[in-house]
Amino acid sequence: MAHGDLKYTLLDYRAPSRHTWLCSAASVLIGVTLILTIAFYTTSSSNIHTISSSHNNGARSTIKSTEGPGSVESESGVVAADDGRCSEIGVQILKIGGHAVDAAVAVALCSGVVHPFSSGLGGGSFIVVRNSASGEALALDARETAPAAASTDMYRDNPTSKSKGPLSAGVPGELAGLHAAWTRYGRLPWRDLFLPSIKLARDGFVVAMQEKEALILADPGLTEVLAPGGKLLLVNETCYNPKLAATLEEISEKGPDAFYKGSLGENFIKDVKNLGGILTMEDLKEYKVVIKRALEIEAMGYTLLGMHPPSSGTVGMALILNILDSYRSVQAVQGLLGLHRIIESMKHMFAVRMNLGDPDFVNVTLDVSNMLSPSFAAKIRQKIVDNATFSPSYYMPKWSQLRDNGTSHFCVVDSDRNAVAMTTTVNFYFGAGVLSPSTGIVLNNEMDDFSVPSELTPDELPPAPANFIKPRKRPLSSMTPLIILKENQLAGVVGASGGTKIIPAVLQVFLNHFVLGMDPLASVQKSRVYHKLIPNKVTYENYTAIDGELIEFEKSSKLFLEKRGHVLENTSSSAVCQLVVHDLGEPVQNWDGKRRNWRNFLRRNTENAVFKGMLTAVSDLRKDGAPAGI
Ligand SMILES: *[C@@H]1O[C@H](CO)[C@@H](O)[C@H](O)[C@H]1NC(C)=O
Ligand SMILES: *[C@@H]1O[C@H](CO)[C@@H](O)[C@H](O)[C@H]1NC(C)=O
Ligand SMILES: *[C@@H]1O[C@H](CO)[C@@H](O)[C@H](O)[C@H]1NC(C)=O
Ligand SMILES: *[C@@H]1O[C@H](CO)[C@@H](O)[C@H](O)[C@H]1NC(C)=O
Ligand SMILES: *[C@@H]1O[C@H](CO)[C@@H](O)[C@H](O)[C@H]1NC(C)=O
Ligand SMILES: *[C@@H]1O[C@H](CO)[C@@H](O)[C@H](O)[C@H]1NC(C)=O
């Protein structure tokens, strides 16, 4: 087929500046729609491996076969999603001059279609965006909110309904978040960002993962889409979601009001009510994206841009990195002793983070400033010893741990070095386990991320009051989308899915590359450890990934940790991390001593201009994703 010709056309097209883009918009757009429509459905993750070395204004894009399919390089733009089809759709948007935000919208919509078990219009997300020219960085909180009819004790009589069925759903924020980001930064028409996903939903997409048969068959909506005629679709069979295609089409033409204020929303609410849910049209109308300047933390010579609470991710990272930073040496995090200190820092962080909640409802000022404070971290560090770990009470946890899960994360960087880190979710696998039959939208079960007074907690700690339900409140989250800067230049984008495992995963990948100097692919692939304080166990990865790659945790590491009193248990359930690294041209050993050289290097070479080096995108082989580059 004409994929080669098509690629040629797209590559020949010079990515324009915003000004040029506007001038040539009319002529290009006519072609764009056509090209998009053809391109997206002819590309698949397997095509990615056929892109070898193309030239576009001197830019290079190469799959480094030596590094395996999990990694791609480009000087012009990259997307690292957890599904190769969605990465490729994002890159097509970048190729025609889209801003990183345009690509992010298209990638998020694609993920919602091909991975309805992880994310979609019925869920919510955190989006961190940095515009390279102005340096402006925004944190968009599009997390689900409790409906107006929700109450602190609403699950007392039926605890299961907190995580399963329509009562477990918060008001969806995904679409509002995408639109808010696009309104600020988008360059391409809103409608065009939907075309690839409409096509996937309508003309069918290949099923990449299929689990939870019982859950699917228990819901008529899910059954219709994923088990037509009562027979579960298998991996590699084609799935159709025509209702979702129609929903996406309507939103592409009428904007998000079609859902939040219009007939689509009314149909969605009707479905939810019929099933026994309490969401109302008023809830949809009242939904607001919370937009703030990104939370900025300085650690180990880098600036990390991320979300404010109700995300515990950025402040959690800050606390851990400040603890490790207080050792004042890069050696502190190296080797097995480094691993022990990382685990101890994580245990302290998990104890502290449960003080957090939605800042619009609880005063978390003191807890946030503690978690961001180097002196607070230094005090905690004094409690860490190199030869022992301790039982949970030593870390003084007050409240039962949040146990969230599910989710999808992707990273986008465009040719101008604008960047997006987005983590999106419906919470559990297939969220509430409910698909709205008239709209094709899967309902989230984000209410499960709240704490409730009647909860029987597995860790025997009381539920966290800062995270109790209130109407319109947002539950605490582990999601940690981050944009990383070095001397005010983009250095990377990172994030992960996997609930409680997200912060440990993002932490280890960050340290692996930015502090310990491992290459991007190895930084993501390396076996990781996880902890959640209670149970008092280190879980570690030691298995063969989907593509046959061994993720090995050494026996000697296990013995080293056991000698310090850690109890280790292997796990096959991992966080899934996506990473983009921007090569700024100097070695990463900058933490103690070489900073001046580095600064001089940038002055010499960029003089406040936006630096443009090689971009490397990595999708985690733990979920069989693939990145894409221009
Ligand atoms: C799905 O198709 C791919 C590519 O043709 C193949 O490698 C894989 O083994 C198939 N998976 C299953 C479960 O059939
Ligand atoms: C929140 O807590 C901080 C520190 O404890 C306090 O200084 C501040 O006045 C409180 N804010 C409100 C609105 O109560
Ligand atoms: C760790 O070292 C301290 C002092 O160096 C010692 O008192 C303590 O017993 C050691 N703990 C273990 C578990 O070896
Ligand atoms: C999420 O958490 C729940 C409860 O802790 C568990 O039953 C479920 O299997 C987890 N995983 C997914 C992918 O939903
Ligand atoms: C990891 O798995 C391999 C088998 O694949 C096994 O030989 C090894 O002992 C395991 N290591 C640990 C630390 O469990
Ligand atoms: C580790 O996990 C694998 C599968 O995930 C399992 O086969 C193996 O028995 C486990 N080993 C230990 C020591 O728990």
UniProtKB/TrEMBL annotation:
The chain crosses the membrane at residues 21-41. GO terms for molecular function: glutathione hydrolase activity; leukotriene C4 gamma-glutamyl transferase activity. GO terms for biological process: glutathione catabolic process. Pathway: Sulfur metabolism; glutathione metabolism. Its EC number is 2.3.2.2, 3.4.19.13. Residues 51-77, 149-168 are annotated as: Disordered. Signal peptide: none annotated. It catalyses: glutathione + H2O = L-cysteinylglycine + L-glutamate; an S-substituted glutathione + H2O = an S-substituted L-cysteinylglycine + L-glutamate; an N-terminal (5-L-glutamyl)-[peptide] + an alpha-amino acid = 5-L-glutamyl amino acid + an N-terminal L-alpha-aminoacyl-[peptide]. L-glutamate binds at residues 143, 425-427, 449, 477-478, 499. The active site is at residue 407. It holds the Pfam family G_glu_transpept. One of its GO terms (cellular component) is plasma membrane. Keywords: Acyltransferase, Hydrolase, Membrane, Transferase, Transmembrane, Transmembrane helix. Cleaves the gamma-glutamyl peptide bond of glutathione and glutathione conjugates. This is Glutathione hydrolase. It comes from Carex littledalei.
